[in-house]
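Lecture notes, unit on protein representations.

Consider one protein chain, 481 amino acids long.
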Amino acid sequence: MTPENAPERRLSAKERLAIPRQHMPERPGPERAGDFEEVNLGLTEQLALREAQRCLQCKNPPCVEGCPVGIDIGGFLRLIAGGDIIGAARLVRRDNNLPAVTGRVCPQETQCEALCVRCQSDAPVAIGWLERFAADYAAAHGGEQAETPAARTGHKVACVGSGPAGITCAGELAKLGHEVTLFEAFHKAGGVLVYGIPEFRLPNAIVERELENLQALGVKVECNVVIGRTLTMGQLFEEEGFAAVFIAIGAGLPVFLRAPGENLKGVYSANEYLTRTNLMGAFQFPRYDTPIIAGRRVCVVGGGNVAMDAVRTSKRLGAEASILVYRRSRAEMPARAEEVKHAEEEDIGFELLTAPVAILGDEHGWVRGLQCLRMTLGEADASGRRRPIPVAGSEFVIDCDLVIVALGTSANPLLTQTTPQLKVNKYGYIEVDEHLRTSIAGVFAGGDIVRGSATVILAMGDGKKAAQGIDAYLKSRPQKG
């Protein structure tokens, strides 16, 4: 930041309170709905400085309580406000191995920003936008520095799964001096960050940059390795010489409607649809000749972030009408408010208080429509949201030729079925104790394979916690060699 942009003096609390929340520039809806370029453009230096000045620098900042990885939020905001953006980026990276990622996809509005004291009077400080700004600025100005790892311990650790939990755990362990190998089943590392989140929300180049930072710490990345098939858990210990293993394979088994017609041609799970598009490059046809049904009229069933990603992707793949079908109202929708707003700006249709009951097909076995019921809302259910109740006689059909089901995921049983001594619960998720230790000595687990579907930052929090547990476990063992 240039000297003329730097603040001349420390602002008083009254002056900070007088600054309104700044707005992040974004591309216009009609323009961006036709491509996969990033929607949000990021804060300028001037906007970032002004937004950071809104932080009241609380003595005991409650915002940190809402951060699963414990970033020194007040500290990095103070550095930005003072013009030391590189210092701010390095402070964030001390606690967060993926700042450019979480600055884009972390639900700050329900975590750190929700606890910002400014919520009592106006809008919270834009912590997520500033985290993204600092990370991007450091990358653009050569300010990203790989932390010097501690002296080598001689212990080898395997991290299974290269999503946010695996990346975080691997990075933390490498900093502690352990020899870490990150195993990925797909041909490209990044996990859900590259197969599940579209480029218009999280460019793959950002993830690749973070993986390069990880490798700079000494972490080895091995792709096309399916633990449970290519190598068993037993082989990791007995043949590969690993002293500990962290399982972070996510929860990649799609959940379907269990309604008539789900076997028709033109029905996708959101997992497959997004993986074909994001990881396998279907959106770059003909450069990547990945088969995908684009659809003229597309219905996406669900109301979460994955549903929003899928319906907005279908628009970009050329659909004339992209429609989100959700059984509750907008107020109960679990997707981030920003994603809902962006979808509306991109002319996505919303069929709210609508529940699919069957998928209809033509004489050739292709989807021709989605049969639905109107719903009304009753009392709150176990999720805390009002329970949808069918309205008698309200059946209707939405004409469509593609249906994408985005109702969540469950545990993929491949690894756990080949490791019978690994204890799982009735839903197939791995059971762990408070230190993320599993039923097998030296094996830890975290992220979605423990929690079920959760957020990137919660998975990262698990990765960080598991690294601490693994380090303690390894220190309790004699060093080899």
